[in-house]
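#structure-requests
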Amino acid sequence: MFPELKDKIVLVIGSSQGIGKSVVETFLDNQSVVIAADITYDFDELLAVNKSYFQTHLDVSQETEVSTLSQVLINNKLIPDIVVDVAGISTMDFLVDSQTSDFDQTFEVNTRGTYLVAKYFTKVMIDHGRKGRMIVIASQAGKNGYRGMAAYVASKHAVLGLVKTLAIEAASNQILVNAVCPGIIETEMKQRERVEGGALRGMSAEDVRQEDISQVPLGRTGTPQDVANVVLFLASPLSSYMTGQAINVTGGMTMH
């Protein structure tokens, strides 16, 4: 528990499941005010679940939606102190067989979406004098190559470039910008990837899961809470001399 996070306003984008859901729960446990935004929420208004928890629809690939939400938060005096961008998608196919439309969609959400979130919500923090945090969920795929995931790998490499650049540009405003690079985390997306990736390679999803475990020095795959714990650290005063970093949460699978 970090008492310093009590009543801090935290915007979590991509919040309905997996890592995003754990991030929301972790900040609520620390008595923060959480705004959960996700494409699956089918209401456009800012829904107050209670005085500390709000939900709203957001498609990060649509600039008008991102800019509108930034203005909604201003109008409702909910200026974020911390922004956590978890939104992301993946497609599975070998590069030579892949669909250009899948490549474009992956970049629309993962890279352009990160750009739009960073652009609009960092500006809100700057304009309102928040010495805040921008935390982006990237991936160890932003540091390595993986078969069947060319679009995802390329998009996450680009995300790390955005994080490093924004960290430099926002430093004078005392806004810290960092990325978290999860490894193999047990989420709904990972389960789907095992089915689709296994089919490409003539393997069952369970075969892929066992292969996943064999690649991790700690001998297990990760949980969404493992990632949320590092997000919490980056949001806390303990990380006050860190910016422009890409922190691995991989059980030792990626060490650079």
